[in-house]
Amino acid sequence: MSAPVRILQVTIGDGSFGGVASFLYNYYAHMDHDRVHFDFLYCGRNAMASRADTEVLRGSTITELGILKASNNGFGEYRRLIAALKDFFDRNRYDIVHVNSSNPYVNACVAHVLKGRTVYIAHSHNTEATVPHGSGLKRLVKSVIRAWSRGYICQRASALFACSVEAGAYLFGEKNLRNGKFRVINNAIDVTQYAYDPAIRRRQRDGNGIVVGYVGRLAEQKNPLFAIEVFKQIHARRPNAVLWMVGEGELMDRARREIEASGLGDRARLPGRIDDVSAAMQGMDLLLFPSLYEGFGIVAIEAQCSGLPVLASDSVPAAANVTGLVSYLPLSIGPAAWAEAALAIVDGNADRCDRTGDVRRAGFDIREEAGKLERFYINTANRE
Q1: Pick from 148, 143, 78, 141: nearest CA to 113
Q2: What gap in Å lies between CA 9 and CA 41, rounded to an integer?
Q3: Are 78 and 113 in contact (CB under 8 A)?
């Protein structure tokens, strides 16, 4: 047997496991490590730290550059990044370098340093920048560089990936979506893990009140404070309603303060990050998903597996609705209108059932999708 294809997965990273880190970990967990090998390079902070000792990552090297900040990176950071990347690639060789970031500067830096010496894949995971672009002259200069970077990325990349058409359009531009290099890589999941189980649902619930759920980072992009405002309106109409807010992030303390100030402390759970998100979803009656922007929205797929309806902002791509259980609303109509819609959805979803078959047929079973990506890597590296 030939040596495995060596792939470097490059991303930014903020130290928390989720989003891109979860995508990479889940795909690698369902690949044959005798055929493909992943190493990881974080331009910011290592987001795989909590999984470093798992069997999945045994033998993988995780490098943390610690250069890019969580927000407002400037030209100084990107100059340092280029120097660090040059040093790294002078010392390390890979068959494929797969950059998982919607940040055009990061992609352009990697493409510039590689200079065609190996296969470079650009993979967009979002529909907007995850960090501010600054203001005034700095914003203008960055906008010009962003436009140039997008063209440079498409010229240099051997393949263009995105988690949705919308995410691809953001990084590569509409016209580049029509060439032969672009493909959507579904943010697939282990559908069996999220299958609906009435017994688990009964164990999760304390009573007959409505359980309103939120699952995701407590960060500005995910809009958790809006979810709290919606819950306030729901509680005013249904006093037995409770809120389960699963996740962690920089807005955790603010979310707790907002809930306490509203006198709803006894009606809300904020457990932070939990290992069994599936069990929590089993107990929920509705998932609020009010993101300001999303590359795709994998939490919606997880929810739909267990028959859990989702009320999402219209910034979540329509492709996330694979079962008809996702309803969309603009954030501009406000929390009261969202609450009315939420209650109508809950009242109309009495016959909850398992939907894993629908999700699998839509192309979101990790076992099938990981096999496709594995074959792509092997064929691209000319190992077969």
Answers
A1: 78
A2: 6
A3: no
Contacts 24+ apart (CB under 8 A), 131-135: 131/69, 131/70, 131/71, 131/72, 131/73, 131/103, 132/71, 132/72, 134/72, 134/74
The CATH code of the domain that includes 139 is 3.40.50.2000
Beta bridge partners of 312: 289, 328
Contacts (Cβ under 8 Å, ≥6 apart) of 260: none
What are the b/e assignments for 288-314, b being 16+ CB within 10 Å? Answer: bbbbebbbbbbbbbbbbbbbbbbbbbe
Same domain, 118 and 88: yes
As a whole number of angstroms, the distance between CA 265 and CA 243 comes to: 10
Which domain, by its residues, includes 83? 5-188+365-380
User: 62-64 and 36-42 as β-strands: parallel, antiparallel, unpaired?
Assistant: parallel
Handedness of CA 306, 312, 315, 317 (dihedral sign): positive
91 and 168 share one domain: yes
Residue 296 has, within 13 A of its CA and on its CB side, a CA count of 26
Residue showing tokens 């309806």: 309
The model's pTM: 0.85
The number of domains in the chain is 2
Do 282 and 369 belong to one domain?
no
Instruction: List the one residue out of 222, 221, 219 whose CA is nearest residue 254.
Output: 219
Torsion of CA 173, 175, 181, 184, to 10 degrees: 60
- Which helix (H) or strand (E) element contains residue 380? helix 366-380
Q: Encode pLDDT of 69-112 as tens digits.
A: 867 788 899 999 999 999 999 999 999 999 999 999 999 999 99
Tally of CB atoms within 10 A around 203: 11
Q: What's the pLDDT tens digit per position in 171-226?
A: 998 877 777 788 999 999 999 999 999 999 999 998 889 999 999 989 999 999 99
Residues 288 and 311 sit within 8 Å (Cβ to Cβ):
yes
